């Protein structure tokens, strides 16, 4: 993996390699690193992973892009810093671009996303009651395992995605069953992106044992541990084996990121926006 600085305009295509670009790397509260929303680019295709409340602002003002150019979307879970900008994208599809967004989503999340998050804002229209399918083309991943946690897989937009169920917010400690729907991703078997998750060492170990070609991990990190049990606390992550830390970049961090030295503590570093992560 090599990094390359952003120069002038966000790229939605490249020569064919896998490239990742963070629209932001911050948590739900920081205003300086624009939440954690990630763009995957490969060849003539792209996928935006999450679209939070600040996503379109950052996309257009920091990177000179047009949010209406986004055609493919994947959402990891229904918190506003990850889906707060989706209503705007859906309405832009209806009124501006006149095309539906391709949304990579499981049946379970599709139902929850519409019924519990989006329906209140966009079900009414001058054409009558709208449904999920009026705004989005569902691109449905196939379930490849049920236990110890659900995993789905799909080949789309030139990439292989494995989507695994994570434990982010739970009403019962350590219970996946009692947790809000949330997913992490493995991209082309090379990159593991946890999205929002509690510290879950057994799951990380399971995935790294199963997918031996994972080169880089982008891991959720709560620097001060205020939201321990919802996000992975920094002091928990520092207990990971050195070989795992060495390939782990931290994201979803707060302003308190200035109080740590991730490199000294054995990590690959902090995930950054303004940077392309290029893979061969
Ligand atoms: Zn979250």
Element-level helix/strand string: EEEEHEHHEHEEHEEEEEEHEHHEEE
- The largest sheet has its strands arranged as 1-18-2-3-4-5-6-9
Major pleated sheet: 8 strands, mixed
- As residue ranges, the low-confidence spans are none
Structural shape = globular
Task: Bin the strand percentage.
Answer: 25-35%
What ligands does this structure carry?
Answer: zinc ion
Amino-to-carboxy terminus distance = 7 Å
Number of strands: 18
- The structural class is alpha/beta
* Helix proportion: 10-25%
Q: Name the average pLDDT.
A: 96
Please tell me how large the radius of gyration is. 18 Å
Helical run tally = 8
What does this structure look like?
The chain is globular and about 55 Å long. The strands form 3 sheets. An 8-stranded mixed beta sheet has the order 1-18-2-3-4-5-6-9. An 8-stranded mixed beta sheet has the order 10-11-12-13-14-15-16-17, with no helix packed on it. Strands 7-8 form a two-stranded antiparallel sheet. It is an alpha/beta fold and 280 residues long. Helices cover 22% and strands 29% of the residues. The model has no long low-confidence stretch (mean pLDDT 96). The chain contains 8 helices and 18 strands. Bound molecules: zinc ion (ZN). Residues 77, 79, 168, 196 line the site of zinc ion.
């Amino acid at each position: 993996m090599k990094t390359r600085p952003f120069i002038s305009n966000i790229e939605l295509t490249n020569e064919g390699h896998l490239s990742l670009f963070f629209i932001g790397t911050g948590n739900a509260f920081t205003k300086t690193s624009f939440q954690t929303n990630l763009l995957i680019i490969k060849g003539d295709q792209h996928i935006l992973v999450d679209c939070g409340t600040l996503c379109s602002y950052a996309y257009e003002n920091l990177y000179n892009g047009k949010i209406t150019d986004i055609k493919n979307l994947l959402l990891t879970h229904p918190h506003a810093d990850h889906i707060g900008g989706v209503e705007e994208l859906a309405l832009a599809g209806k009124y501006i671009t006149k095309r539906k967004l391709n949304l990579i989503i499981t049946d379970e999340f599709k139902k929850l996303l519409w019924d519990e998050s989006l329906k209140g804002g966009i079900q009414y229209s001058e054409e009558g009651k709208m449904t999920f399918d009026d705004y989005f083309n569902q691109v449905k991943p196939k379930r490849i395992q049920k236990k110890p946690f659900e995993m789905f897989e799909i080949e789309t937009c030139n990439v292989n995605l494995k989507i695994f169920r994570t434990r982010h917010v739970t009403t019962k400690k350590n219970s996946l069953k009692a947790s809000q729907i949330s997913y992490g991703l493995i991209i082309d078997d090379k990159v593991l992106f946890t999205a929002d998750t509690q510290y879950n060492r057994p799951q990380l170990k399971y995935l790294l044992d199963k997918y031996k070609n994972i080169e880089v991990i982008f891991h959720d990190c709560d620097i001060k541990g205020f939201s321990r049990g919802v996000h992975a606390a920094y002091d928990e992550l520092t207990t990971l084996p050195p070989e795992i830390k060495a390939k782990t970049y931290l994201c979803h961090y707060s302003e308190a990121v200035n109080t740590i030295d991730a490199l000294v503590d054995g990590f690959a570093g902090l995930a950054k926006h303004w940077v392309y992560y290029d893979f061969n």
